[in-house]
Amino acid sequence: MTVSLALLAMSHSPLLEHAELPGDVSAELQAAFDTARTFVHDFDPDIIVNFAPDHYNGFFYTLMPAFCIGYAAESIGDYGSQAGRLDVPEDLARSIAEHVLGDGIDLTVSLDMQVDHGAVQPMELMYSDIGAKPVVPVFINSVAPPFTPVQRIRLLGESIGRYLSTMDQKVLVISSGGLSHDPPVPRLATANSEQRKALMGTGGPISAEARAARQQRVIDAARDFAAGTADIQDLAPQWDQDLMRILASGDLTPLDDFSPDEMTRIAGNSSHEVRTWIAGYAAMSAAGDYEVEYSYYRPIRELIAGFGMTTVVQR
Ligand SMILES: O=C(O)/C=C/c1cccc(O)c1O
Ligand SMILES: [Fe+2]
């Protein structure tokens, strides 16, 4: 059987819909999205496996797993992203979970995962509809410390890749997140009592006003960051490009030495979203040799993101 696996790894930013980019940057980025869209539509997957973080919309500190697979999922629609149910093939999600657990990796399961912009933005950009294809969502904690060692993410990705390579269907793996960035997402270490309840998920459903205020804070921070007046950590283009080189090299083991504290120090509190890329590339590596077909990178302060995009095929 010929294995048919491909990967789209890309940064996301909810600011794509809420920030004004310089004309040349916007045109370049749209061209990058067009290239990715052509890649995805030419590949025409039967199934998508979607590695994504969450930003305290579906996963909270009452019980924060390192990673979790959804047997069913719903998008909450933050920042104007598409709300509604994803088309999750439950039997496939269960089979993947059983396979990964059998490999000795403690994947948790959700029978009704709530996902946010981090999970659905690539689907929206590629298909204009989060229900366009069957999707198995895999949450990877990338925002809420403490973090599992990066090696565990590699092993998770490899295990899922081994499973996918036994399937007689075309599978597109999507990795959504990263690279260096430090948006003002609430953090436990600096939270007041109200924010702490929100992070724990014990404050009840977030009101429309509170959500609008939370989002406006990030939108304002992005505007100030672009103007050079924001009090958030700068992007780290060198770190981003070094990481992309390691991922493209085919040998992911150097990433095992990345320490979460160092990642935060160099590349910001949300740099851990690169875990989704590591899982995706690891899945590709488990199915054989791969090569990066297309690679884009630009640090874009208006999006508070070292913004990267790669498409990856089997060799
Ligand atoms: O406000 C949030 O929940 C997240 C915002 C954000 C901003 C920039 C890049 C990202 O990856 C984000 O999730
Ligand atoms: Fe994010």
TrEMBL record:
GO molecular function terms attached to this record: 3-carboxyethylcatechol 2,3-dioxygenase activity; ferrous iron binding
Key words of the record: Aromatic hydrocarbons catabolism, Dioxygenase, Iron, Oxidoreductase
The protein's required cofactors: Fe(2+)
Pathway: Aromatic compound metabolism; 3-phenylpropanoate degradation
E.C. code: 1.13.11.16
Domain of life of the source: Bacteria
Catalysed reaction, written as an equation: 3-(2,3-dihydroxyphenyl)propanoate + O2 = (2Z,4E)-2-hydroxy-6-oxonona-2,4-dienedioate + H(+); (2E)-3-(2,3-dihydroxyphenyl)prop-2-enoate + O2 = (2Z,4E,7E)-2-hydroxy-6-oxonona-2,4,7-trienedioate + H(+)
Domain Extradiol ring-cleavage dioxygenase class III enzyme subunit B span(s) in chain numbering: 8-308
GO biological process annotation, one example: 3-phenylpropionate catabolic process
Active site: 117 (proton donor), 181 (proton acceptor)
Keyword check for Nucleotide-binding: no
SUBUNIT field: Homotetramer.
Family indicated by similarity: Belongs to the LigB/MhpB extradiol dioxygenase family.
Described purpose of this protein according to its UniProt entry: Catalyzes the non-heme iron(II)-dependent oxidative cleavage of 2,3-dihydroxyphenylpropionic acid and 2,3-dihydroxicinnamic acid into 2-hydroxy-6-ketononadienedioate and 2-hydroxy-6-ketononatrienedioate, respectively.
Protein name as it appears in the record: 2,3-dihydroxyphenylpropionate/2,3-dihydroxicinnamic acid 1,2-dioxygenase
Organism whose genome encodes this protein: Rhodococcoides trifolii
